[in-house]
Design brief:
The chain is 42% helix and 12% strand. It has 170 residues and is of the alpha+beta class. The two termini are 35 Å apart. Bound molecules: FE2/S2 (inorganic) cluster (FES).
Length: 170
């Protein structure tokens, strides 16, 4: 089970005006009696707004904001791996190693990243630029192997392409 972490540096949480507008649109997708179903997209928005991860303080803010019990928010956040429960680097690099990607040499993709960044999977670089993680299927099997960096998918990868992609990141 994934653990929720407190953030000793957590300040006061507040959604931006843009996020509040987005939340209104999210709520509009659901019948009034089913507003709790909006929790997942709101958590995603909170992660984006609050530094790329969800601390206990951020989750508690979402619970209060949505009127959903804290335990329900914790249950969702700890179940789905797209919610980051610890800080991530500027570039969150997720490499799929599920069956299609594995058959198409996701091992080579990982080795290329290891060599290029001099960094192991499951770690964040000391300069805070890269977090490398191995993940299950990201739904792009037809173009395996693939990786996701922040919101972008990179498909039909080779070790050489991976190296070029890293070089082109600002
Ligand atoms: S197996 Fe890698 S995207 Fe589906």
């Amino acid at each position: 089970m994934r653990q929720i972490q407190k953030d000793p540096n957590a300040g006061t949480f507040q959604f931006s005006e843009t996020a509040l507008g987005e939340i209104e649109k999210i709520y509009a997708r659901y019948p009034a009696a089913q507003r709790r179903s909006a929790l997942m997209p709101i958590l995603h928005l909170a992660q984006r707004e609050f530094g790329g991860w969800l601390s206990q303080e951020a989750l508690d803010f979402v619970a209060e904001f949505t009127g959903i019990a804290q335990i329900r928010v914790y249950e969702v956040a700890t179940f789905y791996t797209m919610y980051n429960l610890e800080p991530v680097g500027k570039y969150h690099v997720q490499v799929c190693t599920n069956i299609s990607c594995w058959l198409c040499d996701s091992d080579g993709v990982m080795a290329s990243l290891n060599g290029k960044l001099k960094q192991e999977f499951g770690t964040t670089s000391d300069d805070g630029r890269f977090t490398l993680v191995e993940v299950e299927c990201l739904g792009a099997c037809v173009n395996a192997p693939m990786m996701q960096i922040n919101d972008d998918y990179y498909e039909n990868l080779t070790p050489e392409k991976v190296s070029d992609i890293i070089d082109r990141l600002p």
